[in-house]
Every structure is written in C-alpha cells, then in structure tokens.
Amino acid sequence: MIASSLLVLFLPLLLFPLINATTFTLINNCSHTIWPAAIPGGGRELTPGSNWSLARAAKASNGRFWARTNCSFDASGKGSCLTGGCGGILNCTADGSPPATLVEYSLYQYGNNDFYDISLVDGFNVPVQIRPNTGDCITLWCAADVAGSCPAELKVAGGCDGACEVFKTNEYCCNSGSCRPTKYSRFFKNLCPQAYSYPEDDATSTFTCNSGGDYTVTFCP
Question: How far is residue 152's CA from residue 194's CA, in Å, rounded to a whole number?
Fold first, then answer.
C-alpha cells in the first residue's frame, strides 16, 4: 500500500520532464534514403517518407542535426558515408565531416527563448527546412540547388564544401579577430538567404522562438 501511494505521489514528477520536453521530428522527404545524425542523439537510417522523433529535456541545451548520404553500415553499426560521416559509425557521437547542411539549436536561453538556424559554414549536401510548431515563429529554408551551382573550387562528390574547409585561412574560417563576407559566402547567401554563409553571419541567420514548443526538420522540403 505504501509503495502504491509513493508511485501515485511521484508519478507526476517522473512524467513532468517528458511532458515539457522539446521534441524535434526529423522527416525524410527525399526520394532516396538518408542517415540523419543528431548531436546529442546518435543517428539512424531513414527511408523516403519516414521520420525520427527526439525529445530534449525542458532546460538549457544545444545541439545539431544533419543528413548523411550514400551510407553503408554493417550489423554492428560500422561503415562509411559519402557526406556527413561521423567517424565511421551509425550512432554519431561527434560532428560530421563536411560537406553537411546543418540545423543548429539552443533551447531555453536568455529570456526563455530558443535560438535556431541553418548553417552552410560546413558546406551543403541536402536541402533542409526547420519549422517551429508555434504559429508566430519563422520557418527557415535552404531548398536551392546549391550543389548543382557550386563553384568548381568548392565542389566535391555529393555536395559543396565550405570555403574554410577548402582554403583553411582566417579569411574564411574567422579563427581570430573579425572577418567579412567573401565571394564564397555571398554565393551561399544568395541561394539560401536565411542560412549562415560564414562563421560571423549572425545578424541575418540566427532566429528565436519562445521556448517550450516543438520543431519539425524536413530534409528535401
């Protein structure tokens, strides 16, 4: 009887973090299989039309999502991908290899706001959309054919590299001091105006939404 009473007492406390969690639903709208990755969260295979939902605790946290392409994994989860691979494993524990179109988020920040963005700093491999499930927050898109019009010096198999990855200089990587837009960042910005085009592209690329809502991330929107 005591055990039952304790369960009734503490059940709301156990459920509270789940009820108030922020859920990200990742959808594969591409015509081909992709292998989305999440830091934190791991990774999995998504066939066309399938989805993957991940819950984040109702507290300050941050992370990122991206799609991996042309992957092959064995039964133990070891393998490789053409783009976005994270050390040869299915369940990622580290960031992916460029090129990869990133969706980034920071939850429950100052003023009880979430911050979210699409980033092409690590290049582009798959079009993406992030949609807050709150009506007054902005949906972000990067749906242009970036890979198809990629400058020759950035073009790689499966996508379009970022300039920092190719040239590795401060002009493009912004490792010290401040840096300015370049012809390569302008290329990305022209095609995907809402996305980060270089590391200090904050003013036009970071968006906020009241914390507590859910998000839908669609690959190939």
Answer: 23
